[in-house]
Amino acid sequence: MSKELGLLNFICVLAALAFLVMIVITAVTAGDLLTTDTLFVMTVCLLGALIFVINPLLYLRSEGKLPVPFMKKSSLVPATSGGQIRSNTPPLLDAKGRAVPPDVKAIVAQMGQAEVKDA
Question: 81 pLDDT exceeds 60?
Fold first, then answer.
């Protein structure tokens, strides 16, 4: 399946480049760039290029090969193969060694954060 994704991304990049080439050709061959027709054709070609380049960019981002500026590295938490998010804290277990449900974990976390108020 990796070959199909690579071929799809290659075709999408070629289509985006073709739209960008059409913008350059339109800009070179048009007598006046600020006419309604020229601006419309350039806008449509730019939108087409954007549509075709989104798929490869999202694929590169999902593979971790595309750095996203202004995003903290710590906010990206690696997921396990089951799609669950890994946690650095050990699992909370009850007296018999079973995993505690998430709602009980939330209550225990709130109890641990509460301050004791003395009158």
Answer: no
Q: Which residue has the tokens 């071929």?
A: 7
The span from the CA of 107 to the CA of 4, in Å, is: 47
3-state SS assignment for residue 64: coil
Structure tokens at 33: 């760039």
CA–centroid distance for 64 within its chain: 10
* Global pTM exceeds 0.90: no
Q: What are the tens digits of pLDDT across the range 21-56?
A: 999 999 999 988 889 999 999 999 999 999 999 999
